[in-house]
Amino acid sequence: MKILKLLTVFITTAVFSLSISAFEVTGESFQLEGKVTSISLNDKGGIINVSSEAGRYGKVFLTYNVVVNQNLPNQGYFHGRGIGINDAGERNTGSRQGVWRREGTIMKFYSLDDVSDANMNYCESVIDLRAETIKMTFYPF
């Protein structure tokens, strides 16, 4: 009986672990590409600023306030702000918060964004530190 319980726990854990690693975002999305405009370092991590053209939001500027996990120096959390001004002079702002991980010269950010036009997005951003570029994919919800 004890072996049967252990086997059940093991199989349940294995199946649950596989489903977590298979997470994939689907549905409506839009993408942006831009450039890193500045990076400044501090004792906790640093600040990364980027800019891009963003369709209805016009020219956007985003700040990533990056905090390094002291136990795992290639990952951590961040919070930031964004502002967009379109050709008609309309302004939208947003706040973002999430986690990040660095793999070589690539930093990947996973955030939830709250925008002043009442939109909310899940966003996956990839910053190439060497090329000083950013690619963002937004999933509205």
Task: Write a short abstract of this structure.
The chain has 1 helix and 8 strands; from the N terminus they run αββββββββ. The protein is mainly beta and 141 residues long.
Mean pLDDT across residues: 87
Give the strand content.
over 45%
Shape: globular
Determine the structural class based on helices, strands and strand pairing: mainly beta
Computed Rg: 19 Å
Biggest sheet character? 8 strands, antiparallel, barrel
User: Strand sequence of the main sheet, in spatial order?
Assistant: 1-2-3-4-5-6-7-8
Q: What is the distance, rounded to the nearest whole angstrom, between the alpha carbons of the first and last residues?
A: 46 Å
Share of helix among residues?
Answer: 10-25%
Q: Helical region count?
A: 1
Q: What count of domains describes the coordinates?
A: 1
The ordered H/E elements are HEEEEEEEE
Q: How many distinct beta strands?
A: 8
Unreliable runs: none
Explain this structure:
Helix content is 14%, strand content 61%. With 141 residues, it is mostly beta strands. The protein has one domain. An eight-stranded antiparallel beta barrel has the order 1-2-3-4-5-6-7-8. The model has no long low-confidence stretch (mean pLDDT 87).
